[in-house]
Amino acid sequence: MTHINSALNLLHAVRASTDAIGVAVSFGKDSLATLDLCCRVFDRVEGFYLFRVRDMGIVKHWCDCVSDRYGVQVRQYPHFDLSRCYRHSVLQPHWANAREAPAIKMADIENAFRADAGVDWIAYGWRRSDSFSRALIMKQCAGYDDRARRCFPLRAFKRGDVYDYLRRRRIELPPSFGRKEQGGLDFHPEAIKTLREQYPADYARWVADFPFSEVPGLATTTDDPASESDDQTSPDRRASSTTAPMRKERRQRD
Question: Cα dist. 117→25, 137, 249 in Å?
Answer without folding.
Answer: 14, 26, 23
